[in-house]
Amino acid sequence: MYGAIEAGGTKFNLALANDRGKIIKEKTLATGSPQEVLDQIISFYRQNPVQALGVGLFGPVDLDPSRETFGYLLKTPKEAWRNYPFYKKLSQALPGTKLALDTDVNVAGLGEYYLGNGLGKKSLLYLTIGTGIGGGYILKGRPLQGLSHPEMGHILLRPHPQDSFPGTCPYHDYCLEGMAAGPSIYGRYKKFGQDLDPNHEVWTFLAYYLAQALVSYTVVLRPDQITLGGGVMHSPNLLTRVRENFADLFHNYLDLPPLEDYIKTPHLKDRSGIFGALLLVLDENTKKQLILDSDLEREN
Amino acid sequence: MYGAIEAGGTKFNLALANDRGKIIKEKTLATGSPQEVLDQIISFYRQNPVQALGVGLFGPVDLDPSRETFGYLLKTPKEAWRNYPFYKKLSQALPGTKLALDTDVNVAGLGEYYLGNGLGKKSLLYLTIGTGIGGGYILKGRPLQGLSHPEMGHILLRPHPQDSFPGTCPYHDYCLEGMAAGPSIYGRYKKFGQDLDPNHEVWTFLAYYLAQALVSYTVVLRPDQITLGGGVMHSPNLLTRVRENFADLFHNYLDLPPLEDYIKTPHLKDRSGIFGALLLVLDENTKKQLILDSDLEREN
Question: What is the top-level taxon of the source organism (chains A, B) (predicted)?
Answer without folding.
Answer: Bacteria
